[in-house]
Amino acid sequence: MNLDRLIVAFDNGLRTLFAPAHSARPTPGEAIAEPELSPAERQLAAALMRVNHTGEICAQALYQGQALTARNEGARAVLEQAAAEETDHLAWTSQRISELGGRASLLNPLWYAGSFAIGAAGGLLGDKWNLGFLAETERQVEAHLAGHLDRLPAQDEKSRAIVADMKDDEARHAHTAQSHGGAELPEPVRQVMKLGSRLMTGTAYWIY
To answer: What is the pTM of this model?
Structure first.
């Protein structure tokens, strides 16, 4: 394993967890006026955006871990590009949580460490499985975000704009990973991934 890449991965982890994320793209819905939300609606929107923020923490960790152990430069490039765009999502969700008066989850360092280990292990299995894991992760996140669009208050167009753009990005990442040779994961693996996702989202919703 390349020591330089390991140092970069460690530095990226520290930045992801403890430094403000900066977006290379404008925040979706930035020009939309802040909606009138009841306390319950504001609490719901903040909780959902906290879940999405934790999901982006996990995504950064997964892709950094996968890129670290990827054997092919093409596969590594796909993973690093996805991670860069997920940084935008991290910045968008963090900003929206603040606007809603919420807080990020205190368990994010734990989720990062676990996700990084899973990503690194996935990379060791070979690039077709590495990219297949990326594709399946993004498909599950896309479905998860679609559910959030159903749950967010209808008048919270600022949050909805962010989630909609994130959903489009995730679908594109999944397609890119598959087109670069990602393998279809076995059904038991996909089910385990779904269970892990439910554990993370449920915990992030309530613990902050």
So the answer is: 0.88
